[in-house]
Amino acid sequence: ILTLVLTNGTKKHVDDKLVTFVNSPKQALEVASSKGFETVLIAGGGATNSAFLDANLISEIFLSVHPLNLNEGIKLFQGAKSEMKLKLIDIREMGEGLVELHYTR
Fold first, then answer.
1. How many CB atoms sit inside 10 A of residue 72's CB?
2. Is 54 helix (H, G, I), strand (E, B) or coil?
């Protein structure tokens, strides 16, 4: 497992045994590729998701729909400048009302 942290802070590219800090989605994919990874899972908030969307680096989206109202909730893409059309390719019921939606571009 490789853990990459996308940061817009003052941390430069730091690589230790547990976490690698990167400053852009492109750099994240370059680091992952250099370590032999072909697939990357983006697990972040709306700003992180938007950074990858705007860099045109998202090929699939898995959305988990929980039977829970979070009031205002967290935006999937916060501040995105790009638009992406999706095609639904799979729906999985995960139990207890949880549904996973799988989209591709």
1. 5
2. helix
Q: Name 98's bridge partners.
A: 95
Strand partners of residue 100: 64, 92
Answer yes or no: are the C-beta atoms of 104 and 86 closer than 8 Å: yes
CB 43 within 8 A of CB 63: no
Cβ-proximal residues to 17 (8 Å cutoff; 6+ apart), any chain: none
Tell me what pLDDT residue 68 has: 85
Query: Nearest Cα to 26, choosing from 51, 45, 3, 50?
Result: 51
**Widest distance between CA atoms in the chain:** 43
pLDDT digits (tens, 9 = 90+) for 40-49: 999 888 999 9
Find tokens 């430069």 and name the residue: 12
